[in-house]
Every structure is written in C-alpha cells, then in structure tokens.
Amino acid sequence: MGMNKNTIFAWASFALFIIGAAIILLGVLKYREYAIGFSVVGIGFFAISWAFNALKGRI
User: Fold this and answer.
1) Where are its TM segments located (predicted)?
2) Could you tell me which of 51, 27, 29 has the C-alpha nearest to residue 41?
3) What residue ranges do the domains of the chain occupy?
C-alpha cells in the first residue's frame, strides 16, 4: 500500500515543522549570538510547513 499525495504532504509538513523547531532551539540554546537569525529561519520553516499543510486535499 503506497502513500497518496495527502500523506506525502502531511509527512513533509511534519518534517518541516520538526526541522524548524530544531533550528530555533539550536539558536536559542547553543548559538545565542545568532539567535535572531536562527529564529527567523525557523519561522520560515514553520511558514512552509503551514503552506504544505494547507495544500493537503487541494492538489
């Protein structure tokens, strides 16, 4: 049983959310002097994750 396009979008959205959270936490916990940049990139990953989640069922 293969994955359909909605399942692929769901997994991609979840993976992007996890990567975004990891980038934000990495910036806050390890690289404090670059925390703003890491946070901006992490929020960008959240936005892409939200867009992928919104595409589920529409394509």
Assistant:
1) 7-28, 34-55
2) 27
3) 9-53
Q: Is 58 exposed, middle or buried (0-12, 13-18, 19+ CB in 10 A)?
A: exposed
| Locus of tokens 């919104």 | 54
Q: In terms of DSSP H, where are the helices of the chain?
A: 5-29, 35-55
Q: Which residues of the chain have pLDDT under 70?
A: 1
The two tokens of residue 39 are 């946070």
What is the pTM (predicted TM-score) of this model? Answer: 0.85
Residue 6: per-residue pLDDT: 87
Residue that is written with structure tokens 């690289």 in the block: 31
